[in-house]
Amino acid sequence: IKMNGSKISHLLLKEGREYSERILKGLTAGVSHFHAVQYIKKELVSNGFIEIKEMDKWKLEGGKSYYFTRNASTIVAFTLGDKVEAEGIDLFKVIGCHTDSPVIRLAPHAKIEKHGFQQMNIQPYGGGLWRTWFDRDLGLAGKVIIKEKDSDKLSSKLWDSKSAVMSIPSLCIHLNREPEFNPNKESHLKPILATSVVDQLMGEGVQAFADKPDVFNIERKNFVTFLDRIAKDLDVDIEQIVDFEFCAYDHHPPAITGFHQ
Asked: Contact 242/218 with Cβ under 8 angstroms?
């Protein structure tokens, strides 16, 4: 089949576009490292991979593909050759990558109330370009540890705010005359969740533990309205929330840019 250079170029561009859109789909779904693993897991299952447990004794068959997860934040997948049962394994091809990235994570004691604003205490994770986190609509996502109602059994659920719930505003220009913008990641990266007045109005009637003890100190460390939102989204009671690990993400989805896309 003969094809001129122009047709080949357009074909390559089309394939590149399709591949890029698959990457964007994964980036959009992976709002946290936990959600990234969940997305990868679904992709593997749809392509015939079989789930196994890391701590079990494996019974593997040649020509099949398997995967296992650890802590909901790590996933390992592999494929065995067709002749592995007869000839054994003498060659490994290993590809490694990471599901996490430099990000803003909520600190264990998250709530800060200052100057009439409710802010979130954070922990910068990794070596990030922290100035790029300012003036963005930020969502929150991660894993929540839940205690079963009638037992001490613990389970985990993934949570995503699915909306912009906080922001880190820049200082107005007449209050900052420095030629370079070098934010202090320990003191300046404190996202604003709400004003205290609005939160009080929206939180009327919201009670966390009422007459029940705050066994896990979850209310002491977080805003009640914030806990109420998580509990409602996950269809659990606030007192069932034991702990969580959340990170911020840009609520605006990734996109392909450029004049010709």
From this structure: yes
